Amino acid sequence: MERTSIRLGGVELASSVMNASGARSAERGEIYELCAVHSGAIVFKSCNRSGLDTPENLKNRGVEHFQSIASELTARNKRVIGSVVGASEEEFIDVARMLDRAGVSIVELNLADDYVTKSVAPFASFERLKSLIGGVRSETGCVLAVKVPPPRIPFEPRAIADLFKSMRIAVAVCANDLSKDLSVEIASGTVQGPARTLSQAHAFFKESENLLDVMAVGGINSGRDAYVAHLTGAKAVQVGSALMKEGAGALGRIDRELDSILGEHSHKSVSEIVGKVRFTG
Ligand SMILES: Cc1cc2nc3c(=O)[nH]c(=O)nc-3n(C[C@H](O)[C@H](O)[C@H](O)COP(=O)(O)O)c2cc1C
């Protein structure tokens, strides 16, 4: 869909909608199934150096498995986003380097998982975060994204966003943790009540200064959800649970729904609505 195509971190994507890391994106068969039904980017399940059997949510076959799929897909001009976990800074750097060499467009560092929080503890101090990100940055040439943990961490979005900008992290993958009872009028992009921060994604967007793109993840089940996430600052959205429930077709459905809402409101491109939420005051 032309209307939903977007430039994320400088990378042209055919759609602003994509799978979330882990959702039907661990095995070769499921990755190829997603690619067959959706022209946007594919996000791999998070992987480490030699694979994990536990924790269950990070079960993966190791980076070499993803490296070979990435080489095949990028040879066919598919946009691939690799996702990295590790138990040490060295492992993060190694795995990111291997995915970069396999030709992925973006490497997403998964700093949001408990496994990483407990081992590398990237948010234990600013120096720790800087050292991890700096280490990966200096060993990779691709666009880098960081999946940030839920907003329990001791740093303000501004401090993290400033660090990302200074270290050439192009994309922050943030929680789309909008309040369940948020009332949005789609036609005007207006939210009831005074101007305020509506989600972690919105908080990072407000600090982005056009130097950092935001990708929102969490609770995207429909084109309307995607539209609201875009209004609150996301340039792209990731779909997890809906894809698990509905199957690979969920991505195309959400893309088509988003496209028709954009069309209904005379928008030629999704980029016209990014961050354009207004408040009734
Ligand atoms: C089956 C499954 C596996 C997941 N595996 C990963 C993973 O490997 N890496 C990661 O960063 N997130 C993983 N996640 C989290 C998703 O990427 C996403 O952040 C989360 O599901 C919230 O989005 P949703 O509300 O659309 O489900 C996984 C989620 C699911 C449902």
Give the topology.
Blueprint: E1 6-8, E2 11-13, E3 17-19, H1 28-37, E4 42-47, H2 63-75, E5 80-84, H3 89-101, E6 106-110, H4 114-119, H5 126-139, E7 143-147, H6 157-166, E8 171-175, E9 184-185, E10 190-191, H7 200-206, E11 213-217, H8 223-231, E12 236-239, H9 241-246, H10 249-264, E13 278-279
Parallel strand pairs: 3-12, 4-5, 5-6, 6-7, 7-8, 8-11, 10-13, 11-12
Antiparallel strand pairs: 1-2, 9-10
Helix pairs in contact: 2-3, 3-5, 8-10
The structure holds flavin mononucleotide.
In round numbers, the mean pLDDT is 96
- Which CATH architecture is right? Alpha-Beta Barrel
- The CATH topology label is TIM Barrel
> DSSP strand (E) fraction?
15-25%
Query: What order do the SSEs take from the amino end to the carboxyl end, as H and E?
Result: EEEHEHEHEHHEHEEEHEHEHHE
Ligand list? flavin mononucleotide
Radius of gyration: 18 Å
CATH superfamily: Aldolase class I
Discrete helix count: 10
Count of individual domains: 1
**CATH top level label:** Alpha Beta
Distance between the termini: 35 Å
Counting helices, strands and paired strands, the structural category is alpha/beta
Major sheet: 8 strands, parallel
Shape: globular
In short:
By secondary structure, the protein is an alpha/beta fold.
Task: Provide structural commentary.
- With 281 residues, the chain is an alpha/beta fold.
- It has a single domain, classed as TIM Barrel (Alpha-Beta Barrel), CATH 3.20.20.70.
- The protein is 37% helix and 18% strand.
- It is built from ten helices and 13 strands.
- Helix 8 (223-231) packs across helix 10 (249-264).
- The protein is globular, with a radius of gyration of 18 Å.
- The two termini are 35 Å apart.
- Flavin mononucleotide binds at residues 20-23, 45-46, 57-58, 83, 110, 112, 147, 217-220, 239-241, 244.
- Flavin mononucleotide is lined by residues 20-23, 45-46, 57-58, 83, 110, 112, 147, 217-220, 239-241, 244.
